[in-house]
Design brief:
single chain, 255 residues, alpha/beta, Rossmann fold, SIR2/SIRT2 'Small Domain', six-stranded parallel beta sheet, two-stranded antiparallel ribbon, 10 helices, 35% helix, 11% strand, elongated, binds 2'-O-acetyl adenosine-5-diphosphoribose
């Protein structure tokens, strides 16, 4: 299937949802989770780092690991895929970006208020009273992925501050999930970019769009379980495929 077919769908669309996963940030140098060898979950034990039980058992290990990730992400820059998505948003005002990523590269590329389904590395909060905590300044120290770091104490109740991300076994932020489902049900095109489509309920978002009759374009170098619901599967890296797709949009100030 070709970019031309995808471009035809994009040109007709008025309400677009762009649904992204770790693959959209891969070409910014941020590791994905499940790619063989390079994925974070190939190198680290998710159960020991990304669950509420892990934080309770060893807060310094978990907090240090997320600080390392914040350092890696803080040094990364948006790539051509993030920029292309921001251009779609500028050219088609009814565009909603829904991301599973905890980085801020969509915002840095110019996307306005992307919906963060899995939280953010920049929104720490108290592990007990849930009061927002002040994020540390700057991108952090030299990356050291095994570094333990005692979490700061909450200014209100003294409990340890935790990363503002969703861990395995936790519910997604309800307002974000509801907004994403509503946008998917109402859109006339969904573009899914760089996600394995295996983590629920996030993976429902493209399926909701398809169930409500919207065509789905997928951008991914590899097949995923979402292949079957997609109208067009564009096999390739997001930072190459999306800029090509955006070239099809009519010339506007956005380009
Ligand atoms: P995964 O690591 O599961 O999947 C990344 C996807 O990106 C794979 O399908 C790759 O083939 C694809 N990919 C790799 N490089 C790419 C590129 N240059 N361009 C386009 N696609 C590329 O990441 P997610 O699907 O985001 O959750 O994972 C979903 C959730 O699982 C994450 O939000 C995280 C993780 O555990 C939490 O932390 C709650």
């Amino acid at each position: 299937m070709t970019v031309r077919e995808a471009a035809d769908l994009l040109l007709k669309a008025r309400k677009v949802v762009v649904f992204t996963g770790a693959g959209v940030s891969a070409e910014s140098g941020i590791p994905t989770f499940r790619d063989a060898l390079t994925g974070l979950w190939a190198r680290f034990d998710a159960q020991a780092l990304a669950t509420p039980e892990a934080f309770e058992a060893d807060p310094a290990l978990v907090y240090g690991w997320y600080e390392w990730r914040r350092t890696v992400v803080g040094r990364a820059r948006p790539n051509a895929a993030h920029t292309a998505i921001a251009k779609i948003e500028a050219a088609i005002p009814g565009t909603v970006v829904v991301t599973q990523n905890v980085d801020a590269l969509h915002e840095q590329a110019g996307s306005v208020s992307p919906i963060h389904l899995h939280g953010s590395l920049y929104a720490p909060r108290c592990s007990s009273c849930a009061e927002p905590a002040t994020p540390p300044d700057g991108p952090g120290d030299e990356p050291a992925d095994g570094r333990r770091l005692t979490p700061p104490a909450c200014e209100h109740c003294g409990a340890p501050v935790r990363p503002g991300v969703v861990w395995f076994g936790e519910a997604l932020p309800m307002d974000a999930l509801e907004a994403a489902v509503a946008a998917a049900a109402d859109c006339d095109l969904l573009i899914t970019v760089g996600t394995s489509g295996v983590v629920y309920p996030a993976a429902e978002i493209p399926q909701v769009a398809a169930r409500f009759g919207a065509p789905v374009i997928q951008v991914n170098p590899l097949p995923t379980p979402l292949d079957d619901i997609c109208t067009v599967n564009l096999r390739g890296p997001a930072a190459e495929v999306l800029p090509e797709l955006v070239l099809s949009l009519p010339p506007t100030a956005a380009r």
